[in-house]
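Thread: "does anyone have the structure for this chain?"

Original post by V.I.:
We have the sequence but no experimental structure in hand. Need at least a predicted one for the grant figures.
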Amino acid sequence: MKNQFFSDQAFTQHLYVGPLAPHLNAFAAMQSSHGYSKLTTKVKIRVISKFSQWLQKHNLPIEDMNESRIKKYSRYQKNRGRLRSGDELALKQFITFLREKGILSAFVPEIKVSEVQRIEKSFTQYLQQERGLSQATIDNYLPTIRRFLTERFHKRKIIFKKLCTRDVSKFVLSYAHTMSPGRAKTMV
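Reply from O.Q.:
Generated one for you, tokens below.
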């Protein structure tokens, strides 16, 4: 398959370096079978080859190829003025190809935990372990905590040292009159 796209053997050998090299021929064949032109496939192989060389340079195995690694590589290429339109897409197509072949594991998106979620989790553990509260009671507390922190800090970093009794009083006075006495007591 190499000779079908590149006539210069020395150049071809330079392309087939790194952890992704063993899969370039199969990817090129798949591209051809899907109707991509030789030129388009050559461009994609060059992009993937450069990424493979970068992985090798940083001692990263094929298992480390994922969307976040592609973003890091793209930033690296952009900073060097070498990122072209379509490069990231070619790499993502290659990842998809490797996943479909079972070479890479399925995509598991990164789940970013917000600061409020992290605090809620910590508070939940405290209420369970230290206070011995039931999950139903905890579930009643969490919306109030979430609303309070969100309104007090908006999108800024949550700094508990900046909280004062006036913040709590203002919050309680803003909402207590809209609730039943029992619900207001839970909020407090």
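V.I.: this helps a lot. DSSP finds ten helices and no strands in the chain.
O.Q.: and The chain has two domains: 2-100, 115-187.
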